[in-house]
Here is the input.
Amino acid sequence: MSSLYERLGAADGIRRIVDDVVANHLVNPVVNVRFRHVKDLPHLKEMAFQFFCMGSGGPQSYQGKDMRSAHQGMNISEQEYLAVMDDIVAALHKHGVDDDSRNEVVAILYALKGEVIRV
Here is the structure.
């Protein structure tokens, strides 16, 4: 069986997915205010790209903060977290990622929620 990284389209596919995820966040009324004011969107995209690659079994290393540190003091609500997950799933669906792979990504995201929500 191929790795999740490969099923997401490897580096090129993940970069396209991340671009669409961020675009989705920017128009999502639940979370767009958090993303409209990001001073360095290219950096945010690069960190998300590295995180997705590493977390899905790719060879890239993640050079960013751990999830708790990255979201510390943001007081992210459950509603915001679910909106972000919906944006990610929509991007995965747009890029033809199969149901099992999408479900695997959702499971990973759920495993991280304690490091992001209300920290």
Remarks:
- The CA atoms of residues 46 and 65 lie 12 Å apart.
- The two ends are 36 Å apart (CA to CA).
